[in-house]
């Protein structure tokens, strides 16, 4: 009864509204995105405090004429960051949710970033049609996921998923994307990351792009490792405290990426996963062969 009275007397939460917001700090400063307010995430993005290490690594790795793919663009922070870093290149952003695509297109047009191409399309381990489960009004709209891959396993997901809506969306594999070959791919797809990687075998073997993967647990990280280690890719930790997210996958011979990460983090590079056949003497850095222990 007491709790009920308190809830009745409490002031209602302010309604979240989307609108154009210009980023004021950080490497993507000056870009306009369509963001929700009030929102702690929005404030981090606007003030340049969102994923600072990852942002700095991108800034070090990308050249002005590079091409990038953003798989799971959501509000478009990383899309806009890439766009600022590759003014003579291109960015292809993919998201199957119409609301995300509409907002991103509006923000890129407002910012004059005409080298960004936004696709209302999912990326998966196979092409065709899949069911997208997505948040209804008032829920966490970053949690949209392809039903075939089950989404992520967190308490918040378990709480929200039963109320999600559903619709059929087109999906394509990495190998089937018709766009400039990327130097960098960012993937954040709520549990579909390993499947997405499996659809890019030809791309990884021929172009060897760097791949920034947001995973959502050790199990998913291991699935990604099983796929990428067969392609001579290694996983570099971007944070001393996060074991699985985000992870930068680079080809074993990509020494520049390791040096860049050491510069940004001001610490020795830490390899989370690498091909079992490699020995410490065949790779640089202080990593050991196989998966890191502990």
Automatic annotation (TrEMBL):
<feature type="domain" description="Methyltransferase FkbM">
    <location>
        <begin position="70"/>
        <end position="219"/>
    </location>
</feature>
<dbReference type="InterPro" id="IPR052514">
    <property type="entry name" value="SAM-dependent_MTase"/>
</dbReference>
<dbReference type="InterPro" id="IPR006342">
    <property type="entry name" value="FkbM_mtfrase"/>
</dbReference>
<protein>
    <recommendedName>
        <fullName>Methyltransferase FkbM domain-containing protein</fullName>
    </recommendedName>
</protein>
<dbReference type="Pfam" id="PF05050">
    <property type="entry name" value="Methyltransf_21"/>
</dbReference>
<dbReference type="InterPro" id="IPR029063">
    <property type="entry name" value="SAM-dependent_MTases_sf"/>
</dbReference>
């Amino acid at each position: 009864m007491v709790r009920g009275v308190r809830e009745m007397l409490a002031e209602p939460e302010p309604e979240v509204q989307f609108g154009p917001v210009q980023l004021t700090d950080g490497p993507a400063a000056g870009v306009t995105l369509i963001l929700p307010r009030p929102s702690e995430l929005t404030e981090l993005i606007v003030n340049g405090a969102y994923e600072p290490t990852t942002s700095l690594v991108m800034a070090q790795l990308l050249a002005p004429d590079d091409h990038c793919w953003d798989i799971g663009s959501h509000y478009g922070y990383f899309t806009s960051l890439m766009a600022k870093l590759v003014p003579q290149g291109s960015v292809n952003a993919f998201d199957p949710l119409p609301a995300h695509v509409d907002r991103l297109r509006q923000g890129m047009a407002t910012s004059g970033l005409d080298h960004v191409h936004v696709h209302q399309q999912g990326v998966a381990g196979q092409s065709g049609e899949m069911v997208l489960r997505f948040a209804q009004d008032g829920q966490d709209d970053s949690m949209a996921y392809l039903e075939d891959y089950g989404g992520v396993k967190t308490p918040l997901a378990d709480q929200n998923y039963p109320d999600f809506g559903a619709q059929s969306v087109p999906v394509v594999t990495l190998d089937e994307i018709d766009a400039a070959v990327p130097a960098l791919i960012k993937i954040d797809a709520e549990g579909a990351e390993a499947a997405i990687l499996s659809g890019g075998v030809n791309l990884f073997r021929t172009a060897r792009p760097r791949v920034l993967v947001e995973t959502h647990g050790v199990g998913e990280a291991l699935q990604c490792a099983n796929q990428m280690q067969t392609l001579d890719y290694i996983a570099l930790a971007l944070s001393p405290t996060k074991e699985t997210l985000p992870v930068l996958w680079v080809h074993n011979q990509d020494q520049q990426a390791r040096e860049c990460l050491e510069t940004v983090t001001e610490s020795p590079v830490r390899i989370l996963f690498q091909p079992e056949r490699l020995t410490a003497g065949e790779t640089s850095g202080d990593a050991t062969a196989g998966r890191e222990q502990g």
